[in-house]
Amino acid sequence: MTKRPVAAITVAVASGAWLFAQPPAQGQQATAKPPAMHRVSGGERHGPSAFPRVDYEQVRPKVAGAIDFQHYHTYEETVGLLRGWAEKYAGIVDLYSVGQSLEGRELWQITIANKKGLRHTDRPAMFIEGGRHAGEISGIEATLYFINHVLTNYGTDPEITALVDTKTLYARPFNNPDGANLYHLTAQTLRSSVRPVDNDNDGLLDEDPGEDLDGDGFVRQMRHFVGMGKGSSIKDKRDPKGRLMQNVGAGKGDYEIYPEGIDNDRDGRYNEDGVGGLDLHRNYPENWRPMREETGRGQTQGGAGEYPLSEPETMAVFKWLMTHPNIAIVQSLDTSVPMILRGPSTSKSEESMFPRDLALIQKFDKVGLDITGYPWAGDTFFTYATRSANPDTGEEPRGTPLFGHGPDFGYSYYGTVWYGNEIWNGGRFTDYDKDGRIDGWEVLRWNDENRAGKGDFKEWMALRHPDLGEVEIGGWNPKFYSQNPPPDLLEPWARNEAMFNIYLARQLPQVRIVSASAKPAGKDAITIEVTVTNEGKMPTALDMAERVKMVRPDTVTLTLGTGQQLAPTLEGQPRQRPAIEIAHLQPGETKTVNWQVRGAGQVRLAISSTRGGVDSRTLDVR
């Protein structure tokens, strides 16, 4: 195919629907004003960097400044909510930026922990974030629901109050504000970051984004009648209205289906190289693979970035986690499966996980299914990849690897429980024919029966395309139905996901001193005995955390007062030390340690655990 000059590409794409506006009749003045534009930076691109802004009703709040879950919160609106929470709940909330995005937006995060007591870093912690994938904005909403539920129930709900009084919750609603902003405010869709990428290997960056040709604010689908038996798709006979298309293979259909837009680079494909193309969830340092390799025989990973942690948004997560090893659970939310999703991502669970770790996480999986109602839970490599496999083919299901994946970094590198749950089902509610799969006709039928008139599916409408001629544009709402729930269905999905994450936070380990005593032990000696336990529902360290040395052993420490000393030991016995390592405590496990000391006074006893927190008390010795 002959390519257009880059300048021509830019003009065509930037014009969008204005390409098809009719000129005013003779003697009339044009009254329409060009739309306000949203500009994208992040690097030079061969396509446009400005797109018409769209005022989506789906992102309008019911009441300005008040939270509700019948709309999607923009970055600016969310910053306002976070500031309001930090002011209203000053005793338990801190708001701060952990860095800047590629375009320079602040990466805002809050810490929720009762400030009257231990420092947040001295408590077991959970980290939750949303919005890593630009279009998966329901993860942002589930994160906001989590925050809002915890804050508004603190002081009235005993379980929430105990959680905030004893644990730390770190929450970052927008991992990737640049991508989400473009998604919220324009017709564009993208995977993650706005950094320009050559997705189609033609030497050009971001030169072929989608266009909203019919001006409805969305990039939907185009169907083009090419002649009987000359295309790859037909109208599905199950739909008498002719809305549903069925792919039957090249040369067996009457239509070709394209995403709405123009083939700006004249390569025969539509919208294959829009804004961005990186995947921030393939940019982690565990088992990373490049986007391209030189032999043609190695493993690659689409969207991986130039090198691990090349993107500021991913680096911000990495730095926070590595400098806060008290985090024992991570939830980084996605959307549109739905699934309780975790690692490993390059092998089956039993091949890469310690048995005790796997048993614990499978317990969490099961509870997650019960709370959310999702149909699937399990690992990325096998369970996710084979969740919709057709058993009638007779083929053995095979896993599909993902490299540089967050859950693998979380478990194999960071030694923590890391979930990347997927919210929303794309309208797949009812399996009418009971074959174990929900296809496009069943999605459409359910929508007709339950949501007629809601506008989730746009009827096909004719439009004159500059290259293809007569086409029809229509199909599902790509943003607020296919990828995310429509706002009137959003709240239960956000709530259920938030409730699972609150359950996870309540499972965090928690070390405690159960008892301490001082008893005479012969001439001039006193035995100090202390018993400690883990009151939490998970160990103070996963076996993998111990393997990769992400945590220190749990340690019980004795601090003596003035005039006191550890008693000398008999010859051949190990010398007493004020700090005694006790490995790691399993849930409910207790351990007892003791010292022989000389001298009366007050001593301080403490237990310290990287992920189980700290506890201490004083003891009078006489």
Would you kindly provide a brief summary of this structure?
By secondary structure, the protein is an alpha+beta fold. Among the domains are: 89-188 and 279-294 and 311-390 and 401-424 and 490-508, 3-Layer(aba) Sandwich (Aminopeptidase), CATH 3.40.630; 511-621, Immunoglobulins (Immunoglobulin-like, Sandwich). The protein is 24% helix and 23% strand.
- Largest sheet strand order: 3-4-6-5-11-15
The CATH class of the domain at 89-188 and 279-294 and 311-390 and 401-424 and 490-508 turns out to be: Alpha Beta
Let me know the number of strands. Answer: 26
User: What profile does the largest beta sheet have?
Assistant: 6 strands, mixed
Textual characterization of the structure:
This protein is an alpha+beta fold and 622 residues long. The protein is built from 14 helices and 26 strands. It has helices spanning 6-15, 75-88, 138-153, 158-166, 177-185, 312-323, 349-352, 355-372, 380-384, 406-413, 440-450, 478-483, 487-506, 543-547, and strands at 37-39, 50-52, 93-100, 106-112, 125-129, 168-172, 221-225, 233-235, 245-247, 255-259, 327-332, 334-335, 339-342, 376-379, 417-419, 422-423, 457-465, 469-476, 511-520, 526-534, 555-559, 565-566, 579-581, 590-598, 601-609, 613-621. The strands form 8 sheets. It has a 6-stranded mixed sheet, with helices on both faces. The chain has a 4-stranded antiparallel sheet with strand order 10-7-18-17. A hairpin with a 5-residue loop joins β3 and β4. α3 crosses α13 (487-506). Residues 1-24 have low confidence and may be disordered.
